[in-house]
Amino acid sequence: MKIVAQIKEPVAAEMDLFETKFRESMTSRVALLNRITHYIVNRKGKQMRPMFVFLTAKLLNEGSVNERTYRGASVIELIHTATLVHDDVVDESNKRRGFFSINALWKNKIAVLVGDYLLSKGLLLSIDHGDFDLLRIISVAVREMSEGELLQIEKARRLDITEEVYYDIIRQKTATLIAACCALGACSVKPDTPAVETFRKFGERCGMAFQIKDDLFDYGNERIGKPTGIDIKEQKMTLPLIYALNNCSAKEKKWVINSIKNHNKDKKRVKEVIAFVKEKGGLEYAVQKMLTYRDSALELLKDYPDSQYRSALELMVNYVVERKN
Quick one: DSSP state of residue 305? Predict the structure, then answer.
């Protein structure tokens, strides 16, 4: 059985029902909106976020979930989808998971409005049911994601990101959403308990490992997920690169910075930068950091009784660092 199917198995019934509820939560009286949201729903990815919500809730609540759990999963998907639609506009991206993006098919103005609509749908879903604790978790995540993106843009201009700033950026940009999923799952069944913070931390550590793994794909020898060198072409400072820059001579550093700033479209030069990062041990260092985050996430699960839900979450953490795309 494929790993993702194995992870999904203990929450398969909940995921099926969630899909129905999620479709319902998107409906509108405007035909154009329904056409676009239908397009979005039919092009979903692996659906890791709702899986995190349901697995966490079932682990903490003796294998059962409630309506709040479904609303938590729907809210996180609505808000996450809104940010993706807006991201594609910001990045002027025409593709998303191999399909045309909303802005490519319906233009930027409509894409921005659809993103706003999904965002408000998510907020109202919580407000209408008085789930203010869930709303707080998701609102903090949205704020952090925006700050992380802006921090990255600010630092990318100068290419002076330290390792500490890098961790700040990926914690806010990527890890905060997975942290919110796990916190929502915990809060839906065990509000106002230490479990909410424990699982927020679990999700955050899992998210940190996930992003470092993504950075490593840029240097991969296998053709996986995306072509190599994309981050360098986009002047993104990733962990392997930061480590290499911190462990080289002033002359080498000057050459790398110049390559990224002025020659990032030159395929030969990008290949040379990739080779330089590998030679300096950047990949090994990033792998070691990724595994440290993985281990610290797994450590948090050890206090909970052994169950199919705990096993699935452990499998999820390991999948994050072993995946091929």
Answer: P
| Residue 237: partners with Cβ closer than 8 Å, 6 or more residues away | 155, 156, 159, 161, 166
From the list 317, 93, 112, 319, the residue with the least C-alpha distance to 226 is: 93
Q: Are 53 and 199 in contact (CB under 8 A)?
A: no
Residue for token pair 């890791």: 48
Dihedrals phi, psi of 195, to nearest 5 degrees: -60, -30
95 DSSP β-pair partners: 100
Q: Which of 80, 121, 122, 84 is nearest to 103 (CA)?
A: 84
Give Cα separations from 179 to 28, 52, 73, 186, 211 (angstroms): 30, 9, 13, 11, 13
Q: What pTM was estimated for this model as a whole?
A: 0.90
Alpha-carbon dihedral sign for residues 247, 250, 256, 260: positive
Instruction: Measure CA of the first residue to CA of the last residue in the chain; give whole Å.
Output: 18
- What does the pLDDT read at residue 224? 46
For residue range 272-296, what is the model confidence (pLDDT) as tens digits?
Answer: 999 999 999 999 999 999 999 999 9
Buried b (16+ CB within 10 A) or exposed e, 203-227: bbbbbbbbbbbbbbbbbeeeeeeee
Q: What is the pLDDT of residues 235-244, one digit of tens each?
A: 788 999 999 9
Q: Could you say which DSSP state residue 215 is in?
A: H
Span 191-219, pLDDT tens digits: 999 999 999 999 999 999 999 998 898 88
Contact 177, 148 (CB under 8 A): no
C-alpha to C-alpha distance for 6 and 308, rounded to whole angstroms: 10
Quick check: 177 and 207 in contact, CB under 8 A?
yes
Q: Are 315 and 294 in contact (CB under 8 A)?
A: no
